[in-house]
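Holo prediction. Input below; ligand is glutamic acid.
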Amino acid sequence: MTVEELAPPVSAPDRAAPGALAHRAALSQLRDATGILGLDEGMYRLLATPRRSLTVSVPLRRENGRVEVYSGYRVQHNLTRGPGKGGVRFHPDSDIDEVTALAMWMTWKCALLGLPYGGAKGGIAIDPRGLTLSEKERLTRRYTQEILPFIGPDKDIPAPDVNTDESTMAWMMDTYSVNAGYSVHGATTGKPLTVGGSNGRAGATSRGVVLAALDAMRHSHLDPTGRTIAVQGFGKVGAGAARFFADEGCRVVAVSDISGGCYRAAGLDIPELEAWVAGGESLASYPNADAITNRELLGLDVDVLVPAAMDGVLTADNAGDVRARMIVEGANGPTSPEADAILQSNGVTVVPDILANAGGVVVSYLEWVQNLQAFSWTSAEVDRKLCVFMQNASRSVWALAGEKSLTLRRAAHVIGVGQVAEAHEARGLFP
Ligand code: GLU
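Structure of the complex:
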């Protein structure tokens, strides 16, 4: 079977399942990078095919006593540079194709950042909004039990992603530890501080997004003060990024979530908005701004647009509407290859996901290192190390892009894919 056959055929790109689109995008980026690197077809196939893909069924006893069964996944795309690393998401659109694409992006992201990891990702196809806390805990523990033989601090280390958080990671770590018979702090990252979490992990992805954006502004000779920002997604990544942008003196004029969004030309009060949402209100009903739709937000005339929600939001259908000078991808895979081409020809600078949102996995790495050493660093120490990792990766992406006239995405993929291919060459093929 060829790799193209492994990927689902997509005849009408923007109408196919989101997972199929993400997988197709990941394969096309890989094809492009291997072409630039001059790698042969065998290496392309090795890198295009996940090392291990696990599908499990996750039965859940609801509070009313009924049993429902959900599909869960864990894909270890590549383990050549170290243990698998990547989040676990709970989302109704999660499927094996999406998880495979996300695992592939984790491989390139870890390699680009110089982290000693391969790439992995997990998911359960469920809408967690209707679940009680104890249902979520039972779901998480059963999923962990099903994937248990494949995970662990030396094998594959899960972390939070869409709709999962530090409690999810504490339950996963506890389930792993109960099976082991002792506490294994390094089994997951993104944990609460009391069970081996790291200072600075909660805001790390958002902090990384802002660092990547500031670096891009510097390269484009833009002073951050007063720059206008629009953020799609007001969850862990988006809300934190909005707050950090405001702290840097930027003007965050629009934010949105699945309920819709709000816009204020003079700049939004982000802490007030966070308190509004924490009180159970929707962004669209926030009284001190104008309501806008997600589509309107993507087309705003701003300096920086940050898609920080789901994959596949910028497509051939709406990429031409983007008026932002710069896109900084907080989400994984928000831009389809067709949208990428349109943005490039319209002169929009795109700071790609595998660089822009890498702050989360960098601090996950720092958390794991602290766990393995039974030691902990202060917030200031973690932040300093995060800045160094982000600056080094950003510098090498901008340098390669300049040197070879590549987009930042192509440069980032060439570096990430190149590192993994080099590791394969060095280790050789077994047997
Ligand atoms: N889910 C995050 C990502 O997509 C973090 C992964 C991790 O910390 O392992 O990068």
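The chain has three domains: 1-49, 50-182, 204-356. That is the main takeaway for now.
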